[in-house]
Design goal:
It is built from five helices and nine strands; from the N terminus they run H-E-H-H-E-E-H-E-H-E-E-E-E-E. It is α+β, with helices and mostly antiparallel strands. Strands 1, 2, 3, 4, 5, 6, 7, 8 and 9 form a nine-stranded mixed β-sheet that branches. A hairpin with an 8-residue loop joins strand 2 and strand 3. Helix 1 packs parallel to helix 3 and helix 3 crosses helix 5. The termini are far apart.
Length: about 190
């Protein structure tokens, strides 16, 4: 994979994630969930052409942005590991997350999950999370890992490489009826 394409992936990821994080208004300590098909990024069908290079380009940017904002990054594995997520042990401890026993690899967990497991300081695999925002790169179906209520977010980037990008932020559910007043900062 040439450096020009990897730089394109990094730039698209940086723009998309920055716009999402600005819109989501996550507080330090909250979670950003990312599902990423490296196969789709390189123009192939999901699950058929894992690219550690493409996943590494996406991961490096997301990790940097998460660290800058004091967020936890959660990298979703593929369906072969039941869409479990790789997080730092501190995240699992803070949120009381259920650890599961598996070690992702490129063809059993996916390139993004594998990259996160290799690059995090103290990685653990957990079965579920409730993230405040998420990025689905290439149709990886991260919705099960978002808090209620997920709100689609459309930024200026709609693809990373060849992969379709879908993003969401979350907001608290509305309660009450016509008499209720709502906090505009939580919308």
């Amino acid at each position: 994979m040439n450096e020009e394409f990897l730089e394109q992936i990094r730039q698209e990821t940086r723009t998309a994630a920055s716009e999402l994080l600005d819109a989501a208004k996550l507080k330090p300590g909250e979670i950003l969930a990312v599902g990423c098909s490296s196969s789709e990024i390189v123009g192939e069908k999901i699950g058929t052409c894992s690219s550690m290079e493409a996943a590494g380009a996406v991961f490096s940017v997301l990790r940097e942005l998460a660290e800058e904002r004091g967020l936890y990054l959660a990298a979703q594995c593929c369906e072969h590991l039941n869409r479990a997520l790789v997080v730092e042990e501190a995240c699992a401890e803070k949120y009381g997350l259920q650890q599961v026993n598996a070690i992702p690899w490129a063809h059993g967990g996916g390139a993004m999950g594998t990259t996160a497991y290799q690059k995090f300081v103290r990685p653990v695999l957990v079965s579920h999370i409730r993230a405040g925002a998420g990025m689905d790169i290439g149709g990886t179906l991260i919705g099960m890992h978002l808090k209620e209520v997920a709100v689609p977010f459309r930024g200026s980037v709609n693809r990373i490489g060849s992969a379709v990008l879908i993003m969401a932020r979350t907001r608290p559910p509305f309660v009450g009826g016509e008499r209720a007043r709502y906090d505009e900062d939580l919308l």
